[in-house]
Structure formats: C-alpha cells, structure tokens
Amino acid sequence: MEKVERPKPGRGQLLVRVAAAGVGLWDCWIRAGRSVISQPLPLTPGADFAGTIEAVGVGVEDFPVGCEVYGVTNARFVGSYAEHALAEAGMIALRPPTLSAVEAASVPVIGCTALQMLFDDAAVAAGHTVVVLGGGGNVGGYAVQLATLAGAKVIATGRRHHLTRIAELGASAVSADEPVPARFAGIADTVIDTVGGAALAGAFDWLRPGGVLVSAVAQPDLAAAAARSVEARFALVQVTTSKLRQLARYFATGTLRTHVGLVLPLEEARVAHALIEGAQAPPGKLVLVPLGGRP
C-alpha cells in the first residue's frame, strides 16, 4: 500500500471514488507477468469496481458527477485496487439500484464474459440446448442463469459440492468427475467452457454436428472441431456500457443473481490473490473494500 497523487481524468475518462473492487484470476495473471496485453510498470492491479463519479474528462456526457456506477477501468484491466481510479466512459454503466456496491463490483468482467460467450459468440436462442462446463463457478453461474432466461435448455457440470447450486440456478446438474453421460452425448447446440484442461478437450463429446464450442480459458483444438463438424473459438471479453446496461436490466427485475464470496479490506489484496490461486479457491467472487468504501 502506498499514497500516490490523485489521478485526473483525460478525454473520455472519469475519476471514480472506489467503493468496492472485484478480484479475478486475470488480476493474478497481470501481477505474475502473464497477461496477454502489454502491461507497463509500475501499475495498480484491478479492473472490476463500483463507486461514485467525482470528476469527468472532456467528451464525457452520459455520466455526471455524483453518479453511482459500475464497470471496469480500462482495456488493460488495471487500476481499481485504490481509493480513486480512472475509468473509460465506454466501459461503465449506472450501478443497478438493486445491488450494493460490493455486489455490483462482483459483476462486470464475469457477467459480460458470460453474456458475450452465449449471445455474441454462440448466438444462443430459445429452444437451444446449452452445456456449461463449470456451472458452479463465477462465469459459469452467470452463463447458466442467462441461458435459462433466454429460454434454452441448460445442462451444467460442476464438482459435487456445486451441484445443488447449479440445480437451483435452473440447470440439469452433472458431476464434473464423471464422463459425459450417454443420454447427453451429442445433443448440445452450444458448449460454454469455463474450466479448460481435460474438460475443454472432452467438450466436443457434448456437441451435435454444427454446434458451437466457446471457451473463456483457452483456444480449443481447431483440428478436432473440424473433424467433428463443429465451430470452436476462444472468447476474450470486451466489457462495454451496452453489456453492463443489459445485465443491469436483469438485476433490476430480480431475474439475475450475484454470488459474492469473501469481502476483504484493500490492504489484503495479497491474501485475495493467494486464495484465488490456491488449490481450494473459496466460492463466489472475491471483493476488496478500500478505506472509506461503502458495502
């Protein structure tokens, strides 16, 4: 922790007093130097946040000072582990009134990832059969809910201790420790992978010919996809005002639920990263609350 000069917003930017900052695995990748995006040092980690606008830069018209907003900081996904952060106007939206700051800070990256994978990358629609690999996780939990809201039939895998929650979200729950059940082999229009590894390698067994596999973890095997006559792609999330507003409408009607895990003070960011990278990461989204942050 250190004191730095309060930043000033440039064109298209806003200065936000951070009330809560979400923590994700991508923050750990950036910290460890494994980001796919160039990350000049020094940097402050953190992308997800919720807070109050304190100043706006040139060209910002939709978000006046005093607005409660949520979203991500910028395309580099850095800067939110702080009392004040700069954010790009095209990557935030008004905070859903039904969510606390902590709840709102838990949403942006994982909620937009699920939304993008389902509807931009896979064009899921009513009547489709969707399989979510890792339906008990953060992205997977939103994918299950959003696909169900779209009218799809949803099947989701998870560890045994996740199966009850998966069923509560509206999916048929299948243990991730078992092979693809014969009754589900080859029936899916779409597979959403949030796990990677062996789960991604076996994802093709769920798909019918002409189906779509989208992974948020790694590039699927394109040769295997061609051999199975399916499409396969890797999803790199783009958080936008439009997506955040769409999620906010679901939250406003109570049809979408957050899943907040541990809430830690900002000075325990190191602890949060260690927990996420540990063998038994705690369930739900980790959130940091800065000094003066409002839960």
The CATH superfamily of the largest domain is identified as Medium-chain alcohol dehydrogenases, catalytic domain
Order of helices and strands: EHEEEEHHEHEHEEHEHEHEHE
The count of domains is: 2
- How big is the Rg? 19 Å
Q: Helical element count? A: 9
Which architecture of the largest domain does the CATH hierarchy give at level 2?
A: Alpha-Beta Complex
Can you tell me the CATH topology of the largest domain?
Quinone Oxidoreductase, Chain A, domain 1
SS-derived structural category = alpha/beta
Shape: globular
Question: Would you kindly provide a written description of the structure presented here, covering whatever features stand out?
Answer:
- This protein has helices at residues 25-31, 101-105, 108-121, 138-149, 163-168, 197-201, 222-228, 241-253, 269-277; strands at 13-23, 48-56, 68-72, 84-88, 92-94, 129-133, 153-158, 172-175, 188-193, 207-215, 231-234, 260-265, 285-289.
- With 295 residues, it is an alpha/beta fold.
- The protein folds into 2 domains: 13-107 and 258-289, Medium-chain alcohol dehydrogenases, catalytic domain (Quinone Oxidoreductase, Chain A, domain 1), CATH 3.90.180.10; 110-234, NAD(P)-binding Rossmann-like Domain (Rossmann fold, 3-Layer(aba) Sandwich), CATH 3.40.50.
- Helix 9 (269-277) links the parallel strand 12 and strand 13.
- Helix 3 (108-121) packs across helix 4.
- The longest helix is centred in the middle third of the chain and has 14 residues, at 108-121.
- The mean pLDDT is 96.
